[in-house]
Amino acid sequence: MNRLILAVALSLFSIVSSAQTKTSNKVLKLQDKIISTGDKKFEINADGFPKQIYNEDLSQHLLYEPMHFHFYSLPKSQEKFISNEFKVLTETVDSIVWIATSASANLKLTVKGKVFSNGLVEYRVKMAALKSIALSAINFHIPFEKSGSKYLAGLAQKTYERPDTVKWAQSDWKKIKPAFWIGDQSLGLYFRIKESSNWLKNYNGAMQINIKGSSMLTDIYASKITLNEADELNFDFNLILTPQPSEKNQLNFGRQFKLYERLDKNISKK
């Protein structure tokens, strides 16, 4: 029995040590809006949001298309945004900070991002009304490649094979954190919505993850939003660009998700 306990303990230590090694700090490099973090590459779009996430040799990518917003003034009528500015504010070997702005006739979007050398990315997004406007819905889309999103951890899921559909609602926030990891054996993404996101808290926000068209879509949304001129909404979230060891057992996925949660929590305190 003692040998069995020792074997299990050594196995768990190996799993956690492997995960810690793969999220350890790397030297950041930026070139043409592509940030290299050692074994991963993170490409930023003109609007400031993630355009693509690659492995080191660019042979695998995680997103079907860039992360993006939809602002609906009517069910089939959207605000059309034009990118105004993209600027890198600071660049060191440990972190890179950027800001981007874009605007439609009625709204201004300000996106500020910061990537750390351990693969964590902080996003702070402000949506400001240039005029009074009633929106039928706001949707934020994370379209994953179907081939690279076999596994899912978080959102109260009991197993790690991604189910056909996963749902979360703002009313669940105290019981179920809006945080998940999606990926496969070699590349993945941890995502968490922060409580400062009044866009979701004030308008009964929700999230659904399922196959839609050619992508495995994470759809984060709220509806019936009325803004007066100069009103602002916030959408704050964290990402962690993650590798995944080759072991496919459920214990490994669960423990790595807990590791990413701790990394997210520790960085967010700073």
What count of structural domains? 1
SSE ordering: HEEEEEEEEEEEEEEEHEEEH
Q: What portion of the residues fall into strands of 2 or more residues?
A: over 45%
User: Nearest-angstrom radius of gyration?
Assistant: 19 Å
CATH class: Mainly Beta
Assign a percent range to the helix content.
Answer: 10-25%
Give the termini distance in whole angstroms: 43 Å
Strands side by side in the biggest sheet: 7-8-9-10-18-15-14-12
How many beta-strand segments? 18
Number of helices: 3
Uncertain stretches? 1-23
CATH second-level architecture: Distorted Sandwich
Mean pLDDT value: 87
CATH topology: Beta-galactosidase, Chain A, domain 5
Gross morphology is globular
Describe it for me?
- The chain is α+β, with helices and mostly antiparallel strands and 270 residues long.
- It has a single domain (2-268), classed as Beta-galactosidase, Chain A, domain 5.
- Helix content is 16%, strand content 48%.
- It is built from three helices and 18 strands.
- It has helices at residues 2-22, 198-201, 250-268, and strands at 29-31, 34-36, 40-44, 50-55, 68-74, 77-78, 82-91, 95-103, 107-116, 120-129, 133-145, 151-154, 165-169, 179-183, 188-193, 206-212, 215-227, 232-242.
- The strands form three sheets. It has an eight-stranded antiparallel sheet with strand order 7-8-9-10-18-15-14-12.
- Strand 5 (68-74) and strand 6 form a beta hairpin.
- The chain is globular, with a radius of gyration of 19 Å.
- The relative contact order is 0.17.
- The model is unreliable at 1-23 (pLDDT under 50).
